[in-house]
Amino acid sequence: MPKNRRLREDPATLANSSVAGPQRAAQPRGILTRLDALRSTLPPAAARIAGYIVDHAHAVVQMSVTEVAEAADASEGSVINLCQSIGLRGFQQLKLAVACDLVEPVQLIHEDLERTDSTQIVTEKIFASNIQALRDTLSVMDHVAMVRAVRAIVDAKRVEVYGIGSAAPVAEDANYRLLRVGIASNVVVDSHVQAISASLTGPGVTTITVSHSGSTHETLAATQLAKRAGATTICITNYGKSPLLAHADIVLTTMARETRFRTEAMTSRIAELAIVDALVASVSLSTYDLAVDCIAKTFDVLSIKRV
Fold it and tell me: How far apart are CA 58 and CA 48, in angstroms?
């Protein structure tokens, strides 16, 4: 079974798709039964999508809207329309509804946990997941892409870093680390400001987008705007197909065995931070004198903040 798939819908598709039925509250369970009952009455494309979801439910909760559309020989818009026609807001909510049909509630916290686990066992399982995420990410690391990303940052007039939700702390850490080594960097974690920032980029500007799913509406829109403006776009995202890849010049992938049933990234965050660490360290070595000088200056400045 494929692993490490995406959780969120393509915002452009969602914005352009029409609602094929009345909006209703999502039912926590029974979505697979409803789809199975409906598929014989649906138009051909919608029927294929519904059939694929029912027949491959365990795989679907790990897939992106792009992957489901390709597997069902349909468009992303058709996937979103089907979701909305059964009263859901989009593909993300569909996946969560499917997950509720498949798993015990404790797996919404973390798929490796049992409700009776002690604090020690929980800690050991979470640490093991994070360690495995680092090992898996290193195994798929594209070192050529890393070299290109370092060069794009070093050559840039300025760097803009984007992240929303659980990716925001990673984006803020990347910005902080870049500033410490003398890179003109700015972080934006507000969706409106991201759109403004991205539209005002251009040749000579490098953007870094952090998105585990590669389908988050806000960062996808910002990356698309930056790409159109002529900026060099770097994306840190999980392995697999997602809408974000269409707007990325350089892709740095994690391979986190992220739980299939949550909306927020956990283990992937550790892998993203490791990529940021490697990226900033490589940038520092590429601009050695400047980086060392800036680290020393900022250390002196920050020393007054400590007792």
Answer: 17
Please report which residue ranges of 39-118 form alpha helices under DSSP H: 44-55, 57-60, 65-71, 76-85, 91-102
In the DSSP assignment, the letter for residue 215 is -
Residue pair 146/278 in contact (Cβ under 8 Å)? The answer is yes
**pLDDT tens-digit series, residues 106-163:** 555 566 777 788 999 888 888 888 898 899 999 999 999 999 999 999 999 999 999 9
Q: Is 250 exposed, middle or buried (0-12, 13-18, 19+ CB in 10 A)?
A: buried
pTM score, whole prediction: 0.73
State pLDDT tens for residues 57-86.
888 887 888 889 999 999 988 998 999 998
In terms of residues, how long is the chain? Answer: 307
Please tell me whether residue 23 adopts helix, strand or coil conformation. Answer: coil
Give me the domains of the chain, ranges plus CATH numbers. 11-102 (1.10.10.10), 127-303 (3.40.50.10490)
With vertex at residue 223, the alpha carbon angle to CA 97 and CA 228, rounded to the nearest 5 degrees, is 135
